[in-house]
Amino acid sequence: MKVSILDQAPIASGQTAREALLDSLKLAKAGETLGYIRYWIAEHHDLSGLACSAPEVMLSYLGANTTQIRLGAGAVLLPHYKPYKVAEVYNLLATLFPGRIDIGIGRAPGGSAEATNALSDNYLQQVWKMPELVTDLLHFLDDDYVTDNEYANLSASPIPEIAPEAWLLGTGKKSAELAAKKGLPYAFGQFMSERDGEVLVNQYRKEFVPRQAGDRSQVILTVSVICAESSDKAEEIALSSLVWGLQKEKGLGQQGVPSIKEAKEYPLTEKELDAIEKQKQKMIIGNPQEVASKLRTLQSLYQADELMLVTITNSLKDRIQSYKLVMEEIKKSSR
């Protein structure tokens, strides 16, 4: 089973954004040591408790401090940007770190309405132009990609020996259809989707149009996971993330991911308890054997080529331990 890491760069209670970003580096290095395939970092804007607004900056820092793990954005929120500039940035990263750079492409705003307006003009119009934006980006990442627009003879320098690997990210029908039409690998965000994901992934595979001979459909399934030595410990650790989700809905997320003690002391209404139970249904929480078993079930259900795990905890130690226990169990069960 291939497994990778999605990092949202969460800021813990009492922690600074700088400390959170340094934790992201430690996580990437740990992931490399443990044998994870990829480390992707998310892009968010003006969202309380999340530290990374510019993945491309972090990727250069991470690349300089790792040697093998693939690095990427999960995702570049393309409607905010000109495809040409995005291609220049990721071609430069791919030139610096050959064969290691991914570019996940997304269409979400990634933040508040105010942040969206501050970032880009006519965001909604750009969302409608997403197929065109993706076409332009693919051309700039690969000069052999056929296009007949005004940029047909324009290259995005520097041209790396190995182009960045483009993925389309999403949680809905439009993203699945676009990935299939453009012949792109697809990363489905199961952890944040309310939809019937198996149907969407099957639709993607059925409608997939290869860009060139040998291309095939590929699927990453992104799952929220909290693993600990025991089920009870995992539930205890997960409470921090679950309570933080409730706090963000109340506008209190700027306080950061609460400690286990703070989460336990947080007064929960019956409605909030129900919301937590509902949220847990979209997560995998448990000991290594339980987590690995559920991951295998999901992989089989989706026929996923790879699983990408997102783990939010107050403590970096707990976060790295979760990834460590999962990988150890996967390796053990594959012998």
TrEMBL record:
Residues 1-301 form the Luciferase-like domain. InterPro entries: Bact_Lucif_Oxidored, CmoO-like, Luciferase-like_dom, Luciferase-like_sf. SUPFAM superfamilies: Bacterial luciferase-like. Signal peptide: none annotated. To bacterial alkanal monooxygenase alpha and beta chains. NCBIfam families: oxido_grp_1. This is LLM class flavin-dependent oxidoreductase. It comes from Mesobacillus maritimus.
